[in-house]
Design brief:
The strands form 2 sheets. A 5-stranded mixed β-sheet has the order 2-1-3-10-4. The chain is built from 5 helices and 10 strands. Helix content is 16%, strand content 24%. It is an alpha/beta fold and 240 residues long.
Length: 240
C-alpha cells in the first residue's frame, strides 16, 4: 500500500531532521597579534684585560679559552718579574705569580699548580748519567743561585761560587753551559732557557714552586671573575 506522502521523516528540503533547537555558531576568536620581539642587547664596548705573568708561567690554554668566550675583550699578556710581582698587581687586572706572596686583606690568591724543581747542568757533566737526582747527589757541586731565584733550595755540602751571583736565571744557565757549576730552577724556567749545551734532571727532594692567580680585591670586575672561572675549569654555561 503506497504511503500518503512518500516523504516521512524528511523536511521540506529533503534533509534529515534534527531533534531540538539548532546550536548557535561559536564566534571566532580574533587572531592574536604576535608579541614584539625584545630588542637585542647592545654590543659590549671593546676593552682590554691585562694579565701579568711571571717568567715560566704557562697561561696558553687559558688564553685560548678566553679568546673563544670573550672575543670582545682583548687579553694583553704582560711579563712581570718575581721580585716585584706584588707591586705589579697595581698595574694589571690579575697576574700569575709565584708563591710565596705576602697575603693581605686586599688580595685574592688562588693556587693553581706546582712545578717540579730541576737541576740544570752542562751536557758534559757526570750528573747527566742519572734519570733523576736528589740533593745528596749535589754534594761537592758548585751550586749557582741567581739574583732572581724563586726556589730557595738548600743543598747540604754544596760549594758556594767564588763569583757574584748572576743577575737572572738566563745568565746562570749560560754560566752552567760553560761547564761551571749547576743551578736549581723550576722546570718551566729550564725549558724557557733550553740550550743545546745544557741538560736538566728532576730534583726529587727539592722544593716545588707554586704558581697562583692573584688580584687586588678592589680590582675585582666581571672580566676578572670570567678569567677565574676559566682557570677553575668552569664551562661557558656554568654559573659563577
Amino acid at each position: 500500500m503506497a504511503s500518503g506522502s512518500g516523504s516521512r521523516g524528511r523536511g521540506p528540503t529533503g534533509g534529515a531532521r534534527k531533534g531540538g533547537a539548532a546550536r548557535p555558531s561559536t564566534p571566532k576568536r580574533p587572531a592574536r597579534g604576535k608579541a614584539p620581539r625584545p630588542a637585542p642587547a647592545p654590543p659590549e664596548p671593546p676593552r682590554t684585560f691585562v694579565l701579568g705573568a711571571v717568567p715560566g708561567a704557562t697561561p696558553g690554554k687559558w688564553i685560548g679559552l678566553w679568546r673563544e668566550r670573550m672575543p670582545h675583550v682583548t687579553l694583553e699578556l704582560r711579563e712581570i718579574d718575581v721580585a716585584g710581582q706584588r707591586s705589579h698587581l697595581d698595574e694589571v687586572d690579575a697576574a700569575l705569580v709565584r708563591l710565596p706572596v705576602t697575603a693581605s686583606d686586599d688580595l685574592h690568591l688562588i693556587p693553581l699548580y706546582e712545578e717540579q724543581p730541576v737541576v740544570v747542568m752542562s751536557v758534559d757533566s757526570h750528573l747527566t748519567a742519572g734519570d733523576e737526582l736528589d740533593t745528596a747527589d749535589l754534594a761537592g757541586e758548585v751550586v749557582i743561585v741567581p739574583a732572581d731565584d724563586v726556589l730557595g733550595a738548600r743543598i747540604p755540602d754544596a760549594v758556594p761560587p767564588t763569583f757574584a751571583p748572576p743577575s737572572d736565571t738566563g745568565e746562570a744557565i749560560a754560566t752552567v753551559a760553560a761547564g761551571v757549576g749547576v743551578v736549581v730552577v723550576p722546570m718551566s724556567l729550564a725549558r724557557a732557557h733550553q740550550r743545546r749545551d745544557v741538560e736538566y734532571r728532576v730534583l726529587s727532594d727539592g722544593p716545588v714552586s707554586t704558581v697562583a692567580l692573584a688580584w687586588l680585591r678592589e680590582r675585582t670586575t666581571a672580566d676578572v671573575e670570567a678569567f677565574v672561572g676559566i682557570v677553575r675549569g668552569r664551562t661557558a654555561r656554568s654559573s659563577r
